[in-house]
Task: structure prediction
Amino acid sequence: MKVDLYTTVGVYSRGLDTLANILAKGVEHGKASGASEAEVLDWRLAPDMFPLRQQAVVVINFARQWLARAAGTEAPANIAEDLDLAGLQREIATAKTELGALKPEQFDGRDEAPLTFNIGVMEPTLPIGQWIPGFATPNVYFHLSMAYAICRAKGAPLGKRDFFAGGL
Result:
């Protein structure tokens, strides 16, 4: 399957803007309701699901790492998992800068480049043009949606527009 891998840069960048908005509104709502920032970042939908902080970490890591792999560069290390809101916002800004530095020519001809990656239960080798739309992007949107759902479930004043805060 041929995909334009470079278009994913804009998709992930807008997702990071959305994440920044969701986190800010969630923490603002939590503080107004008497919760500390740390408590808000520990909110979760169910006991066996990642808390808000971890949902954000996954979105940031996936945006940075999978596009680096798609561009044929070394994937950056995972960000710290214990960041406060300022730290998460700083990592979002860093990720956006990294994505902004990527150039279309870095993705040229990379659709069929094989990539072996361990996803916990297996370690498949797939073309990068399959990894990005079939694995990375669904994961970015899943964890972004969970961050939204966590804040919304706790009463944060979020609506559908907030999910598109990064634009279309």
